[in-house]
Amino acid sequence: MINFRLRIVLLAGLTILLSALLCAQDWTTAESLPGVDFSGLTPAQQSTVVKLLREHDCVCGCGMKVAECRFKDPNCFYSRGLASEVVTAIKQGKSPSDAWTAASASRYGHSDHKTLEDPIPIPTAGAPEIGPKDAPITLVEFSDFQCPYCYLATPQLKQVLKAYPSQVKLIFKEFPLEMHSQAAFAATAAVAAQRQGKFWPMHDALFASHSDLSRPAVLALASAIGLDVKRFEADLDSDAVRQAVARDMKDGGDIGVMSTPTIFIDGQHYNGPIRFETLKPLLDAEIKNPVKQAKSDSPSPTAR
Fold first, then answer.
1. Domain ranges in the chain?
2. Could you give phi then psi for residue 5, rounded to 5 degrees?
3. Predicted structure pTM score
4. Could you give the CA distance from residue 275 to residue 217 in angstroms, rounded to a whole number?
5. pLDDT of residue 100
6. Which of 24, 36, 91, 267 has a 20 to 30 Å separation from 128 between CA atoms?
């Protein structure tokens, strides 16, 4: 157990360093961008996309180019949407100018700079939650265990729960990105752990080990948090668990989730950095003047 804990501490330190290095990259020279899926593009097409995103302004009001915004505010709804539209257009064979025109004409090309969008229903039945069941504020997080930005957002959300112990609950939805080769497997591991009532211990362990989410590493995590490993392996490979992950991904896709982490505050898509100091005034305002939430299915009892 001591060796496992030491391993977790070392891995956590390493992932913080790697995330810091990633954030420190120069957006003017980097050939890939946070939260942008370049799969299916040729190297020449990828270079075209990156060049376009370096040249054009983000519409979120940040005053940065799209590529710069992706590095400095990876949760920005508009920069990730513009990037996705440009990638799609280039895949379709459009010229660079036509690709940018298409992106600009999309819903991501114009912003009223709303931090919180209008509330929408989000299916949450069966999803793990933490916090009081009757909390007046519900946060729904779509996340990816291999995503370095999700890793960095996690302590910020924990700080929110600590600061609002009776007023906020957090519901977790799986949204493994295709660009992260081990994310889908990690998502099934979290759902399999939930079946034994240990979603949140596995959640923390997966993020602490997010630089290595191979099957042997995940099985070691399962043993360390006290799961029945034989049952865990059976659930890992079951259609039911894979379908649960697929449902979360469909739910996210249906409401416009494109990258991670993405959070909703009482059904309102939050467009901004996931930091405690930026979330606090929004939560305080929500407590004083709660928004009328769109109807969605009721969450299940808290999954631990």
1. 19-105, 129-288
2. -65, -40
3. 0.73
4. 29
5. 95
6. 36
